[in-house]
Automatic annotation (TrEMBL):
GO molecular function: transmembrane transporter activity
Residue ranges of every copy of the CusB-like beta-barrel domain listed in the record: 356-430
TM segment ranges: 20-39
Source organism (scientific name): Romeriopsis navalis LEGE 11480
Domain Multidrug resistance protein MdtA-like barrel-sandwich hybrid: 75-336
Name listed for the protein in its UniProt record: Efflux RND transporter periplasmic adaptor subunit
A Pfam family the protein falls into: BSH_RND
Compartment(s) where it occurs, according to its Swiss-Prot or TrEMBL record: Cell envelope
Coiled-coil ranges from the UniProt annotation: 156-310
GO cellular component terms attached to this protein's record: cell envelope; membrane
Protein family per UniProt: Belongs to the membrane fusion protein (MFP) (TC 8.A.1) family.
Length: 509
């Protein structure tokens, strides 16, 4: 047996394991590459799923109801006179604080005072007649009554003459004011011209074009024009004072006329009633006339008191609708809505501030008196104010097919910043939900009236899953059943997919 013959056999045996090892390594390498690519694709799919979905979470939240509202006064009225008349005085202006019962305006009371004087005379006449009927007539009393009538007539004539004279003085004084205004305007024009010339001459003098003497003449002319202006204004002020004085005398003369006429009427009544002792029936009738006259006097006195316009409650003047001299008629408007006709109101008066909120019908069951409210105004975007629910309207309001309830909110903070008429957003804090399952509201979809969410299905593709929803809190909604904490739901759809395609695909299954 020769050993060399065994050498090839030994070499073949040693080479076969090397070939298998190389093949095994090649297969392993290919499998590793394929496995790595699979893991990478799986990780990429998971990353995409994480980016498109959010986990369902559970937490304790407070129910909230959103609403809008407008800040308005708690009490708000347009103050008007009870009887039409002309405004004589205004004692306050917009923004002033007033107290309840304080006189804020005065109406012209000249005619009403004449009524009071007439009613007083009628009462005196009725009482005098009653006294006459209760006592025997006397010739001396009759003579005195006649003399009183004569004297009263003379007083009336004198008062009328004085009234005409004072009215003439008013007209004359007003003419003087007109002339004085013209003189002031003329003096002002001359003064302006003199100043213009002086300015021009000073420029010429500075340039050496004219002498100092020439400049001094223009300076003197300007001073003279200014003195003339001062004198014209003084004369105008004197004329205006004479007008005011004459007008006051006219009012006094008118009051005097009314007074002496009342005295004349009383004297005539006394003269006519100086007769014989009256019968029991006449005395009763006279007593009734006294009572009627007393009632008429009281009514006239009430009308006189009503010419003083008083504040119905403590508050602030929000608007001034009338000016002195304006004619104002009564109005039946009980409250002001922010604007009023100047012919029917004198002042707008308001007290306090509150929010008149509008809460949708679906949320009104979660609103209760005393509930805490968060108030936000556009004028203060970075600030929150507090309030509480004061009252809930018992009846709904429907506007443009939308039903809502009016809720009055008492403002607790921010009264120094909030203003009537501001629009505000409201957040009503409700009951506490413990360990509530919450999902983003935008993730909820509807399929044939059934609420649901999209969850990862086969190959992580979105599938519809029905849920039962509860209350909404800001941008989240409570889920009562259908999903659990930790589940992932789609908040965004994968690229290339549409919601209606997903829902229709689920229907075919």
């Amino acid at each position: 047996m020769q050993i060399p013959l065994l050498q090839p056999v030994v070499n073949n045996v040693t080479q076969k394991p090397k070939t298998w090892l190389i093949g095994l390594l090649a297969v392993g390498l290919v499998g590793g590459v394929i496995g790595f690519q699979g893991i990478r694709r799986q990780r990429e799919s998971e990353d995409k799923l994480t980016a498109l979905t959010v986990p369902v979470q559970s937490s304790d939240v407070a129910l909230q109801v959103q609403g809008t509202g407008t800040i308005q006064p708690i009490r708000n009225v347009n103050v008007s006179p009870k009887v039409a008349g002309r405004v004589q005085q205004l004692f306050f202006d917009q923004g002033d604080q007033v107290r309840s019962g304080q006189v804020i305006a005065k109406m012209d009371d000249q005619d009403v005072r004449a009524e009071v004087a007439q009613s007083t005379a009628n009462l005196q006449s009725a009482r005098a007649r009653l006294l006459t009927l209760r006592s025997p007539s006397r010739s001396e009393a009759v003579a005195q009554a006649r003399a009183g009538v004569v004297q009263a007539n003379a007083s009336v004539d004198q008062a009328l003459s004085e009234a005409r004279r004072t009215q003439s003085e008013v007209t004359s004084a007003q003419s003087e004011v007109i002339r004085a205004n013209g003189a002031v305007a003329d003096a002002q024009a001359k003064l302006d011209l003199a100043k213009t010339k002086l300015k021009r001459q000073r420029q010429l003098a500075a340039a050496g074009a004219i002498s100092q003497n020439s400049l001094d003449e223009f300076v003197q002319q300007a001073k003279s024009a200014e003195e003339s202006m001062i004198q014209a204004k003084a004369q105008r002020s004197q004329a205006q004072s004479r007008v005011a004085q004459a007008q006051a005398q006219v009012k006094q003369a008118a009051a005097r006329v009314a007074q002496v006429r009342a005295q004349r009427d009383s004297a005539q009544a006394q003269r006519n009633q100086q007769n014989t002792l009256g019968s029991a029936g006449e005395i009763s009738q006279a007593q009734a006339q006294v009572d009627v006259a007393a009632a008429q006097l009281q009514a006239a006195q009430n009308r006189l008191n009503e010419t003083a316009i008083r504040a119905p409650f403590d508050g602030v003047i929000t608007q001034r609708y009338a000016t002195v001299g304006a004619f104002v008629t009564p109005t039946t408007q009980a409250s002001a809505a922010g604007s009023g006709a100047t012919s029917t109101s004198i002042f707008g008066l308001a007290n306090g501030l509150e929010v008149l909120a509008r809460v949708p019908e679906v949320d009104i069951a979660r609103i209760r008196a005393g509930q805490v409210v968060e108030i936000r105004a556009d004028a203060y975007p970075d600030q929150k104010f507090e309030g509480t629910v004061q009252r809930i309207a018992p009846e709904a309001v429907n506007e443009q097919s939308v039903t809502y309830f009016q809720v009055r909110v008492k403002i607790q903070t921010g009264l120094d910043k909030l203003r009537s008429g501001m629009n505000v957003d409201l957040n009503f804090t409700g009951d506490q939900l413990n360990n509530a399952t919450l999902v983003p509201t935008v993730a909820i979809v509807t399929k044939k009236g059934q609420a649901g969410v999209l969850v990862p299905g086969k190959d992580n593709k979105p599938e519809f899953k029905p849920i039962e929803i509860g209350a909404s809190v800001k941008d989240q909604t409570q889920v009562l059943s259908g999903i659990a904490e930790g589940d992932r739901i789609f908040q965004e759809l994968p690229p290339g997919l549409k919601l209606d395609q997903i829902l229709k695909k689920d229907e075919k299954k």
